[in-house]
């Protein structure tokens, strides 16, 4: 007769096979590893009980795939995915939701210090207070002091966590402390961003904060021709220039601005800026600057520029570009703990749907959002789908705005602003709106086309659940093609295992750079 006993090691040991004399008298005892015992206990279905009392993390159309917030599968345990059969055409209509497990986004608790404790200029703190921004978020508490101390920093933190203020405050503070320059002085800080909409947004925040401390802010964005770029410098060179790389290169070629006297260079939205489509231009801009290698380079008669690179995701090519302009080893890194995880405060639903049914599903979702008074971003993968979908929604009587890169710059300029002002509640757009744009009004993101990469998914969903926001965010993704399903399976597996998205692990992030705690 065999008896099962709980093993103390993960490996089975057959005790009866030992050569002790007493063994012959005893019935053989087989020690079975705990995992195998648990598997045996699951019954004939072989399924692990993934539900426990309490909140549900993942709720599915088929309840046997539900997973409780209190359950996490073992590291080597096979994860049962609701989306496993989604390549089959009969799976249409199936769905699952990753529920939010946290209520507040990135906001600091009442016991966190206020901005005053970060030792930025009192006028800046007061300007923030007037805007209702009192306590710094995690990334602000990390980045501001390091920049004030003169370090070059590479900073990766989730979408909507407040990175813009995290770099703007020390930049404005240090320019203010340096005193008023000569009237014809060169620009002292350049902030580089990938789109004119984002340039517009960052410039308006910088202006609101720069005004009280007597600093001027200029803006040059792409797509408006040389006349518009020249006009940006008509009133003299601004202290801070927010620019897209293409427009800045044009300004440099025509000598409207110089970058060799900069005190600060900021590269925002690193994943797009270091993407091959931008990195060539960015490299050309950076080679015209003198980037410091350590804080002592910021002093003396010819001070160099401090460099800060920020993003919510980081591509591989960052080092290749930066290596040419500074000592990478001297850069500090800041990385938030939940980088490249699904946002825990945003409810995310995935719906397997036939291509022909997507419009119907979308109009249902838009009706629900309208009843709740929620603004919606609808993402498509191409400009032509934006145009087609806009036309179809128009036919259905849905008021909306459209934003895609092929639109003339003059038209694009007003679209996002009018959406922000609430003149339209639905914005149909390409990924041009997924990077950096602050969308406090938006409560629902719809992936009409499933994004092509996990990075795009992170940035799109990151348009909801932003710091300082009062509203619960939600994302709805339509899953149609087999290649969409592959991506969904990776996302579902990461959600169930509570790991970051596969292939985006940041354990060895920027090896060779000092960790932020080194300073
Ligand atoms: N300390 C704070 N308290 C309250 N709200 C804040 C705070 N810091 C920033 N915000 C607000 O949070 C929102 C998101 O900030 P921001 O756009 O800088 O995020 P981000 O990290 O740059 O996002 P993304 O990665 O999408 O570019 C903005 O509306 C901003 O005004």
From TrEMBL:
Keywords: ATP-binding, Helicase, Hydrolase, Nucleotide-binding, RNA-binding. GO terms for molecular function: ATP binding; hydrolase activity; RNA binding; RNA helicase activity. CDD domains: SF2_C_DEAD. Pfam families: DEAD, Helicase_C. SUPFAM superfamilies: P-loop containing nucleoside triphosphate hydrolases. Its EC number is 3.6.4.13. Residues 361-512 form the Helicase C-terminal domain. It catalyses: ATP + H2O = ADP + phosphate + H(+). Residues 144-332 form the Helicase ATP-binding domain. Residues 1-28 are annotated as: Disordered. InterPro entries: DEAD/DEAH_box_helicase_dom, Helicase_ATP-bd, Helicase_C-like, P-loop_NTPase. It comes from the Eukaryota. Residues 15-25 have a biased composition (Low complexity). RNA helicase. PANTHER family: RNA HELICASE. The Q motif is unique to and characteristic of the DEAD box family of RNA helicases and controls ATP binding and hydrolysis. Belongs to the DEAD box helicase family. This is ATP-dependent RNA helicase. It comes from Denticeps clupeoides. The gene is DDX28.
